[in-house]
Protein: Large ribosomal subunit protein uL29
Organism: Caulobacter ginsengisoli
Amino acid sequence: MKIADIRGMTPDQLSDALLNLKKEQFNLRFQGATGQVEKTHRVDEIRKDIARIKTVLRAKKAA
């Protein structure tokens, strides 16, 4: 997810995206524990996307 795309979203859309990413992160954690994860790079991408969304949400709440 690009930062420009994230900034263009409304706070409701950002909250939904954050929830979806957290669910995906949870599933990947379980797959990693059982040794079934195929795309190991996706774990890092999700973590960074969550941080980006949280940063933009916080900035929008402050404004």
Q: What stands out?
A: The first helix runs from residue 3 to 7. Helices lie at 3-7, 11-34, 41-62.
